[in-house]
Amino acid sequence: MPIKIPNNLPAFSTLVNENIFVMADEKASRQDIRPLKVAIVNLMPTKIVTETQLLRLLSNTPLQVDITLVKTETHNPKNTSQEHLVNFYTTFNQIKEQYFDALIITGAPVELLDFNSVHYWKELCDIMEWSKTHAFSTVHICWAAFAGLYYHYGIQKQVLDKKMFGIFPHKINAINHPLLKGFDDIFMVPHSRYTGVKMEDIETNPNLALLAYSDIAGAYIVADRTNRQIFITGHAEYDRNTLKDEYMRDVEKGIPIEVPYNYFPDDNPKLTPHFTWRGHASLMYSNWLNFCVYQETPFDLTKLEPLEY
């Protein structure tokens, strides 16, 4: 998929070096097609890393995608330069009159806080409410998945006994769902979180479907009955070394942390981790854009039907 992004965005050169088809604005404007409009609300502190990870996964179909990066106004990130934010990001207030085929809301390192204690919670609630009328399909990742399940369906997050940290095997719970088309019976996914949701809270809600889960990590993919709201509790977008970097950071800070489950060969942090989830991560995002967005979204986005439940 040609990803339409500014050619001076740091992810541009990274993805070009990986032979991923990215397209500068000037070239994209000469193609006589309507690209999918995808907004990414990036709540992660390391925004450049997260941008690159997600853009890599959105690049695997023949569709052209026009990316809009969005930041919160009520939180000023300290780990990303102001120059980068000014050059490449917009705010919700600047796009709230626009319509999008798809929206991604990332995780954030605030999961142990009560939702109402997160200082940009009201702004995020405004975004999630807006998504029901201005985005055809929305993917919520990790903390955003718990935030979305709480905001839209009143499902409470649960604090875990210890951090869910590692690469876990998962099973399909909805064989014919388009998001899982082509998946193996068992597939691997990274998790890095201190909270979760009870699977029975999902299964007893008539508006939701549990698509995939792990016997260890619990609910993984949850979707509403229209596929316009998708909640993903893990981090399929992670790179090979993301968990390694998190582990080493916590060790250096003296934070008690176990070696990530099923990640390092022989549980030895000195060895290179195996990259065992890349194929299914790419397939999931390709399925989402193809089957849940492109095949269903209206050509004229102003005619998008509001999401009701």
UniProtKB/TrEMBL annotation:
Tagged with keyword Metal-binding: no
EC number: 2.3.1.31
Catalytic activity: L-homoserine + acetyl-CoA = O-acetyl-L-homoserine + CoA
Name of this protein: Homoserine O-acetyltransferase
InterPro entries named among the record's database cross-references: Class_I_gatase-like (IPR029062), HST_MetA (IPR005697), MetA_family (IPR033752)
Biological source species: [Eubacterium] siraeum DSM 15702
Keyword Transferase among UniProt keywords: yes
EC primary class: transferase
Sequence positions that bind substrate: 163, 192, 249
Site, Important for substrate specificity: residue positions: 192
CDD domains: GATase1_HTS
The protein's role, per its UniProt record: Transfers an acetyl group from acetyl-CoA to L-homoserine, forming acetyl-L-homoserine.
Cell compartment(s), UniProt: Cytoplasm
Biological processes annotated in GO: L-methionine biosynthetic process from homoserine via O-succinyl-L-homoserine and cystathionine
GO cellular component annotations of the record: cytoplasm
Active-site residues annotated for this sequence: 142 (acyl-thioester intermediate), 235 (proton acceptor), 237
Family of this protein: Belongs to the MetA family.
GO MF entries: homoserine O-acetyltransferase activity; homoserine O-succinyltransferase activity
Keywords, in A-Z order: Acyltransferase, Amino-acid biosynthesis, Cytoplasm, Methionine biosynthesis, Transferase
Pathway(s) per entry: Amino-acid biosynthesis; L-methionine biosynthesis via de novo pathway; O-acetyl-L-homoserine from L-homoserine: step 1/1
